[in-house]
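Lab meeting, item 3. Inverse folding demo.
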């Protein structure tokens, strides 16, 4: 993968896959590899209904854990 997708649903899937498969040990490492700012990515996905769980190391739909 040479760049992260722009579509929020595909982006969440790609990021979660890369973190799950341990391609990267943190969201920060993943973002820096793709020249993205971690906070910018978090905010973009938050605006599109996803929140980051550092404990789970994945983005999840807002309200999923309630």
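The presenter then showed the designed sequence:
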């Amino acid at each position: 993968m040479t760049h992260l997708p722009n579509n929020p649903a595909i982006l969440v899937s790609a990021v979660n896959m890369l973190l799950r498969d341990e391609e990267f040990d943190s969201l920060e490492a993943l973002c820096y590899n793709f020249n993205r700012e971690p906070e910018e990515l978090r905010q973009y996905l938050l605006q599109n209904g996803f929140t980051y769980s550092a404990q789970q190391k994945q983005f999840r739909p807002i309200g999923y854990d309630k």
